[in-house]
From TrEMBL, chain A:
This is HPr-rel-A system PqqD family peptide chaperone. It comes from the Bacteria. It comes from Sphingobium nicotianae. NCBIfam families: PqqD_rel_X (TIGR04353). InterPro entries: PqqD-rel_X.
From TrEMBL, chain B:
It comes from the Bacteria. This is HprK-related kinase A. NCBIfam families: HprK_rel_A. Keywords: Kinase, Transferase. GO terms for molecular function: kinase activity. InterPro entries: HprK-rel_A, P-loop_NTPase, Sigma_54_int_dom_ATP-bd_1. The lineage of its organism: Bacteria, Pseudomonadati, Pseudomonadota, Alphaproteobacteria, Sphingomonadales. The keyword Transport does not apply. The keyword Oxidoreductase does not apply.
Length: 93, 289
């Protein structure tokens, strides 16, 4: 408990949707990222404010059907760690 | 420098200085139809210097080192008889490393009715040869090496330097062309045999005239004819790889390239011979309104 994820400020990111992938330009790093689902969805859900993994699962479940057999918390933590490594998400706590 | 010449190609101007006269004489002959640049009245965008590797090497076994505003430390010196190639490589290097007014795409381009085909691909894909041949077949050659994408308008600007033909492409692309439009055959350079071709007069006269990109081609010379659409995401990745200044341009480059790939259809073309690829291009062009 206690780990909170925070999205990069919206004015730092420019997103272009190109079919199956999204292109994302990050002002702070000057880097361009190609991201596929579920990355854009996670970033969008975090856009509603800082969240724990449990909060995020709640936000995403409101929009998407999950496969009940999957360990959503573990999957999300992995994706959030990847987004954090790119500098697109910050980890507090 | 002992000798120098001013050259204007598309939007860029160059000062080429040289320790030797011969490379500049060759440049002056081949660039005779280009508008002159008076170096006493304006500061050029870039300077290229062809200088001896050591002071005494100007006369004894002359060996050229390319220098200028931007340079690559590992560039190998070149023989004086390849001086024209050294000058061309020096100009390309300045553009690739120093140009900031456009997104610089390592691509050839040709224009018809105000619309352009952009042709990109690895070295050996045939982009230079295709552009050279299309330029003799009713298209306006805009450039065989760099296409300049304007971040503001989305238009492509020409950079019609001398066309650099290599190895087997030399005989194919120069068939029937008057010798006045051909540079010397430079055999066994680091890039193989090289011969330069002067673009047609209309390509030079209209070298400041942009066009709207209408088709992006990824040709690949190979055994079987094939054609497949390239989705915008793949086109974006390949164009960023083909651009030397994408990262330097930041968000302007990002917006220019995303606009380009969402508006311009992209096709990968595998072709075994020139007749096949020209038929494919004619067919693709006929579908573009």
């Amino acid at each position: 408990m206690g780990v909170t994820y925070r999205a990069e400020a919206p004015d730092q990111i420019v997103i272009e949707h190109l079919g199956a992938i999204d292109l994302l330009y990050h002002h702070r790093s000057g880097a361009t990222h190609l991201v596929a689902a579920p990355m854009p969805q996670i970033l969008e859900a975090l856009g509603d404010g800082p969240a724990t993994v449990a909060d995020l699962i709640g936000r995403l479940a409101a929009q998407f059907d999950f496969d009940a057999a999957e360990d959503m918390a573990s999957l999300l933590e992995q994706r959030l760690a990847e987004l954090a490594a790119l500098g697109l998400v910050r980890v507090d706590g | 420098m002992r000798h120098e010449i001013g050259l204007g190609i598309g939007p860029a101007t160059f000062r080429i200085g040289s320790a030797w006269r011969a490379p500049l004489d060759a440049l002056a002959r081949l660039y005779a139809a280009y508008p002159p640049v008076d170096l006493s009245r304006r500061v050029p965008d870039f300077t290229v210097r062809l200088q001896p590797t050591r002071p005494w090497r100007r006369l004894i076994r002359p060996s050229i080192f390319i220098a200028g505003d931007h340079w690559l430390p590992e560039a190998a010196p070149m023989a004086l008889e390849h001086g024209l190639l050294a000058a061309e490589m020096g100009m390309n290097l300045q553009m690739a490393l120093g140009w900031r007014r456009h997104v610089l795409l390592h691509a050839s381009s040709v224009e018809r009715d105000g619309k352009a085909i952009i042709i990109t691909g690895e070295s050996g894909s045939g982009k230079s040869t295709l552009a050279a041949m299309l330029g003799e077949r009713g298209w306006r050659l805009m450039g065989d090496e760099f296409a300049l994408l304007d971040p503001v308008s989305g238009a492509v600007f020409p950079f019609p330097r001398l066309i650099s033909l290599k190895n087997q492409a030399i005989d194919i692309a120069t068939a029937g062309i008057a010798s006045e439009r051909l540079g010397p055959l430079m055999a066994a350079t680091a890039k193989g045999d090289i011969r330069h071709l002067v673009p047609r007069a209309d390509a030079i006269a209209r070298m400041k005239e942009p066009a709207t990109p209408a088709l992006l081609l990824f040709p690949q010379y190979g055994p079987a004819a094939d054609r497949r659409p390239v989705d915008p995401g793949e086109a974006f990745v390949r164009l960023t790889q083909a651009s030397t200044n994408y990262v330097a341009l930041g968000e302007a480059g990002f917006r220019a390239l995303t606009r380009f790939v969402t508006q311009v259809p992209a096709v990968a073309l595998d072709y075994p011979d020139s007749a096949t690829v020209f038929a494919a291009i004619d067919d693709l062009w006929s579908r573009i309104g």
